[in-house]
Amino acid sequence: MPVPHTAFAPEATTNHALRAYLHGLPGVDEVGARARAQDLSTRSIKTTAKAKAIDLAISMVDLTTLEGADTPGKVRSLCAKAALPDPADRTVPHVGAVCVYPDMVATAVEALRGTGIGVASVATAFPSGRAPLEVKLADTRQAVADGASEIDMVIDRGAFLSGDYLKVHEEIVAVKEACGEAHLKVILETGELVTYDNVRRASHLAMRAGGDFIKTSTGKVAPAATPPVTLIMLEAVRDHFAATGRRIGVKPAGGIRTTKDAVRNLVLVNETAGPDWLTPDLFRIGASSLLNDLLMQRTRLSTGTYPGPDYYTQD
Amino acid sequence: MAERRENKKKGAAKAGAKAEAAGTAAGAGAVPARLAVRKTYKLYLGGAFPRSESGRSYPVASADGTHLANASLASRKDARDAVGAARKAFGGWSGRTAYNRGQILYRVAEVMEGRREQFAARLVDARGLSRAEADRTVSTAVDRWVYYAGWTDKFAQVLGGANPVSGPFYNHSAPEPTGVVAVFAPQDAPLLGLTSVIAPVIATGNTAVVVTSEKAPLAAIDLAEVLATSDLPGGVVNLLTGKAAEIGPHLASHADVNALDLTGAGTSAVEFEKAAADTLTRVLRPGPEAEGGEDAWFDADPGTSRMTPFLETKTVWHPVGV
Amino acid sequence: MIFEYAPAPESRSVVSLRETYDLFIDGEFTPARSGEYLTTLNPADEEKLAQVAVAAPEDVDRAVAAARRAYDTVWSRMSGAERGKYLFRIARIIQERSRELAVLESMDNGKPIKETRDVDLPLVAAHFFYYAGWADKLSHAGLGPDPRPLGVAAQVIPWNFPLLMLAWKIAPALATGNTVVLKPAETTPLTALVFAQICQEADLPPGVVNILTGAGETGRALVQHPGTDKVAFTGSTEVGRQIARAVAGTDKRVTLELGGKGANIVYDDAALDQAVEGVVSGIFFNQGHVCCAGSRLLVQESIAEEFLPRLKERISKLRLGDPLDKNTDIGAINSAAQLERVRELTATADEENVERWSPACELPERGYWFAPTVLTGVSQAHRVAREEIFGPVLSVLTFRTPEEAVTKANNTPYGLSAGVWTEKGSRMLWTAERLRAGVIWSNTFNKFDPTSPFGGYKESGYGREGGRHGLEAYLG
């Protein structure tokens, strides 16, 4: 690939320079982007390909609970499920990570000790992000101190929509610094950004500011991870890699409930960013109910019979 | 020069008498107080009035055989030059606003109205019409320009529109001029018929190369003078006086001619249509009015039937999204 | 991880092929007087699919006579509302049998099932549905208070969209009260013959639709038959010329939908990812067997260096192979003859020192295949920039200014389609206004709809199919 537009990310971090850069990115035609995502959704992934895709998808799941009613007990049972998704079948891989609120990080870290599964914590006044920067940073530092290996931050959508790209950028930089060794996933909350042009701009802004992953949604706003949004973010990481040599991960979250949805996401990855992104290091799926559907489809493929939900743990 | 007649036959004096009555002193045989200035009839090409490059002319007689004048006998090369002039004028003319084209066509009507006398006299000569018939024909011809002046900014609305496609697209069809139209004007309707075939072609933004009535070409050149003084850009209408059978094949097969109006092509029409096939040139075949005189063209509302054959429908799609 | 898609073949079991198919005349299948049959193959594996009758001139006489009889005695006398109901009925049967027809079309034509299933068949049904509704509203079509049908229409269609082209021809003809004799292409007759069965299933009066299979001779006999009132043809410009010549001096009306060499203009401010998609679908949709294909890419010089690698990377992801595999993007070339033509024309590029690129792409051993191909360094003078290749071959040219783009785009005897890619509305409209082509796709390409008129300028033919405009071709 030659040097794409994204290579011209400005040296200077001023709002003016960021604006010039982001508004200079190629536009996204909404209808065309939807059509491409729709076209890829007709890929028919069957038999052996489906079996591989299911296991890959399981290994990419960020098994998530983000409820006000979460308790240590609920988190512990989620962690047990993460480590051993199907007690009846030990060949099932473990999930990518467990994703919880900051006050549950310590519980999750304890429960997952020795499994190799990381704990991701939402932070920065998730999901709205409406808190002073110092509060957001404290939120982040606490989660990292408690053992979170990944931080899922939210951007300030209000600042983004009002054109204050510098504020969004500076917050990401600050949170990244607060993360230390932990990986930073930047949640764009694409449902609030509304246009695909904004999704593309926010993606590049987050990558330039140092995010390790760009993530679609909090799961608290609809629409969440729609295929066109994921497509555009995958194009963004592809272009960023071509420009900088640095691979950024993508995490669609929210609304991915079925095996079909998950496999469609993998097809999007495969045919947009490419096979290099088909690893939990670079692609995650934020979900809660998806895992059981993946497990049921896995059983269906290996046994040829349709399983019932009663045979899978509900946590 | 074969076509050029040896001398002026008996009719010369008679024609002269009619045309020059105003300038003739009273009393037969008297020395005229002033010798009338006759008009030389030339072609109308690219806004200018050149003679045929061939140097040829041919005699034009009145309905009763009286010699009226000599007309230029257009050649193959004149036809070629006319197509070149029409092509050159096409971009500018089709690019004018419809309103502006309407204004210019209306201006043609205004200028023509001011020269009613001349046109009526010409029809009396050429077709042997009564003065009343001639007046009515001229009136209708003037009104026809007014009629098409009004069409310029309406046909696109009548013939085009939005198409409700099944998908997130804005989709719109609009008619556009096809380009250069070679018009074989009716042989027996030298003014109203001529006007009726030219006006719809240029009202829609096409440019025209017109082969006039062979035996009654003089009104066409009078009309050219009207066109030349009506803000119509040079080259939009080019008039060739002469023989359709001689220059027609070159126009019909010309690869830079987009359409043919074969109304006055007579027995050559089939041959021309065949020649047109090689470059898929659009063809309007001769209709029932082709054989008639001026009275075949009196219908006050010709409708769109002489415009649509020279229009292309362009459909544009564009996504609708944010 | 390498993510291989396992084979995902659509089942052929929905199709039941007969050994032989006869002509459909006057509501019945009847052997050709010639007694001759031709074989139609699956171009993806060269396996024989069926034998179809070759109509002789006497068969054309019979079919035209049947169509005339049906016109005089039934179809022209029936109320528009009732005619429309037959078309609605046909549209519904097509929807019901759409999977069968899609599979059969892919087998006979070689195009991917993804396209027959998601594009061809939905459009076929939609076309009948659209024109069905016109049948009792013709006085509102802007063609006069009481427009009349012409009579018997002779219709000849190509092999690239066999059933869709049939729909484009038959639906408006029947809605306007004409009867038809239609000849499908020699290499793709099968869905037309199933359509004949559908006419029977719909109880369409005998003779309203007649289907004559055969090759060029049959088509010639049909378009030259003195007993018809209308000729509608879609196919090559060369045959279009012959038809235009043949009807000269007759009262027959003609519509011709011929070749093209469509330009796809990509301005430097285009939405690049969508432009790449549009360029890809513009030339590789249906293996490039599309008269309105965007076979000339005109990319602005200032982004050419960035655009072409993006384009090539995207083309590398196209999946070529079994047309019945649901993941196939590019199927087989329709015939040995067409493959030869594509090869021959593309070879001229090699001789003219044009740079030729194809992705790493394994071609199946049997069948007719041609890898997607991009030719760069092409100028207007090269044959590949001027002649219609009708295959998956894209010629890439560059331009510097909008004027130059338009000049190059229009610098062809054809004028069927063009594409414009820009995020600037005024530039799009400026460009669309100047392009001499019947269909302009801006920020999209190869979109079709029954309500949208389709047809060309210049040597791409005349007349329009689709929409209200499409009625005009069948009414006097």
Attribute tags:
heterotrimer; A: 315 residues; alpha/beta; TIM Barrel; 8 strands; B: 322 residues; Aldehyde Dehydrogenase, Chain A, domain 1; 3-stranded antiparallel beta sheet; disordered N terminus
Largest interface: B-C, 34 and 42 residues
SS class of chain B: alpha/beta
CATH evolutionary superfamily of chain A: Aldolase class I
Radius of gyration of chain A: 19 Å
Helix fraction of chain A, binned, reads 40-55%
* Share of residues in helices of chain B: 25-40%
Largest sheet of chain A: 8 strands, parallel
Describe the structure.
- Chain A has one domain: TIM Barrel, CATH 3.20.20.70.
- Helices cover 48% and strands 10% of the residues of chain A.
- Chain A contains 13 helices and eight strands.
- Chain A has helices at 15-23, 30-41, 47-60, 72-83, 105-112, 133-145, 157-161, 165-179, 190-193, 196-208, 227-244, 259-272, 290-303; strands at 61-64, 97-100, 118-122, 150-154, 183-187, 213-215, 249-251, 285-287.
- In chain A, strand 3 (118-122), helix 6 (133-145) and strand 4 form a beta-alpha-beta unit.
- The N and C termini of chain A lie far apart (46 Å).
- The mean pLDDT of chain A is 95.
- The model of chain B is unreliable at 1-26 (pLDDT under 50).
- In chain B, strands 7-6-5-8-9 form a five-stranded parallel β-sheet, sandwiched between helices. In chain B, strands 3-4-10 form a three-stranded antiparallel β-sheet. A two-stranded antiparallel sheet of chain B has the order 1-2.
- With 322 residues, chain B is of the alpha/beta class.
- Chain B has ten helices and ten strands.
- Chain B has one domain: Aldehyde Dehydrogenase, Chain A, domain 1.
- The longest helix of chain B is centred in the middle third of the chain and has 21 residues, at 131-151.
- Chain B is globular and about 85 Å long.
- Chain C is of the alpha/beta class.
- Chain C has two domains: 12-258 and 459-472, 3-Layer(aba) Sandwich (Aldehyde Dehydrogenase, Chain A, domain 1), CATH 3.40.605.10; 263-449, 3-Layer(aba) Sandwich (Aldehyde Dehydrogenase, Chain A, domain 2), CATH 3.40.309.10.
- Chain C is 39% helix and 16% strand.
- Chain C has 15 helices and 18 strands.
- Chain C has helices at residues 57-75, 80-96, 98-109, 113-134, 162-175, 190-201, 216-223, 237-246, 272-284, 301-316, 336-351, 383-386, 402-410, 425-434, 469-472, and strands at 20-21, 23-25, 28-30, 37-42, 47-53, 152-156, 179-183, 209-211, 230-234, 253-257, 263-266, 296-300, 355-357, 373-376, 393-399, 417-421, 439-442, 461-462.
- In chain C, strands 13-14-15-12-11-16-17 form a seven-stranded mixed β-sheet, with helices on both faces. Chain C has a six-stranded mixed β-sheet with strand order 8-7-6-9-10-18, sandwiched between helices.
- In chain C, strand 2 (23-25) and strand 3 form a beta hairpin.
- Chain C is globular and about 65 Å long.
- The mean pLDDT of chain C is 97.
- The interface between B and C is large, with 34 and 42 residues.
